[in-house]
Design brief:
Length: about 170
Amino acid sequence: MEIVTARLRLDALRDEDAEALFAYRSDPAVSRFQGWKPASIEDAAGFIAAQRGIAVDTPDTWWQRAIRLRDSGELIGDLGLHFIDGRAVEFGISLAPAHQRRGYAREALEVMLDFVFGGLRKQRVMAWVEPRNFMCMRLLEGVGMHRRDAKAGDVMFELPAKEWLAPTDD
Ligand SMILES: CC(C)(COP(=O)(O)OP(=O)(O)OC[C@H]1O[C@@H](n2cnc3c(N)ncnc32)[C@H](O)[C@@H]1OP(=O)(O)O)[C@@H](O)C(=O)NCCC(=O)NCCS
């Protein structure tokens, strides 16, 4: 499945993405607040291979999408959806440092929220963020997510479907 936006293309990770994925995911600026950091290109290749055969909306799985520049196809990041239980979805997003601060993360996240709420009809989207990860918090607040209680030291952000599908003016 492929989703195209004004500047991006979201699709499956491919074997040939391993080197680029390793490069940005092992960069301390990207891995600092995240649970997974590839130790090698082979490790990144294993991450990609493990995605093979995982269908969208399979409960208890992470479904990982590549974020590419629409025109060149260059891999600039990834966005993962964790289908928790039929109703709720958790996500995580990473961008290569060279491609941050251009609005790409917001563009990718917005189209993914359209897909999750409008296409898959999920009720709730969540993200857990390390409390010092201000860039991520700014992104989540920017799309209207609400900061909730803490879980295992992380801050929980949440967005109910009704707010995304029928936003208020304020
Ligand atoms: C979280 C993360 C993806 C956010 O990336 P980001 O580059 O800050 O977010 P965006 O791509 O939406 O860019 C937003 C910035 O680009 C600016 N921008 C520049 N051109 C823009 C354009 N054409 N359209 C929109 N925004 C634009 C915005 O003004 C904004 O800047 P500001 O924060 O100073 O206001 C990134 O920090 C990251 O990969 N971090 C490491 C991984 C991580 O910790 N992930 C969190 C796990 S959930």
